[in-house]
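User: My instructor asked us to take a sequence, write out its structure as tokens, and then describe one feature of it. I'm not sure where to start. Here is the sequence I was given:
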Amino acid sequence: MKSTLTFLAIILSLLSVQAQTKNADVKAIEKQVDAMVNSWNRHDHSDMKTYCTADCSWVNIVGMWWKNLKEVEYSTQFYHTNMFKQTTMTNKGVFVRIINPTTALVHFKSYVSEFTTPNGHKIPGSDDIALLVYVKQKGKWLMTAGENVVIDPEAQKNDPVLHLKK
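Assistant: Let's start with the prediction itself. The structure tokens for your sequence are:
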């Protein structure tokens, strides 16, 4: 009986340590998402190397695919200099799913204020969602891939999941 209780105590303490580690990982990832939002709102992406891997990739909202940190940083900065210089991004939610100790999927919901395209079209502010992939390298969570889309409020009304029996 005593050995069973000792075994259970060991299992519970291991589960507690694992839960604490997972919670710390989620907080570290949320902090990295905040760093990305801060770069956006400063319109200065020179610090991307602090929250992205060197081989990171990004597919933007119109399907442009940038394949390494140099391309991602250059292109993002280009658009902030030429199109997004007056925009703000608001973090509306970070939803982290730890896949394994070194990999996480993140759904990041945001609001981006209105902007004007290079050809003069005014685009209204929108809610967006991004799927981000994070990897843990040398103890630090870094984004290695991302893609963002606009959330279409009219299309959301027709989401089949709304009719799914719970």
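For the description part of your assignment, you could build on this observation: Strands lie at 52-59, 65-66, 89-100, 103-112, 115-116, 122-123, 126-137, 140-150. Try explaining in your own words what that tells you about the chain.
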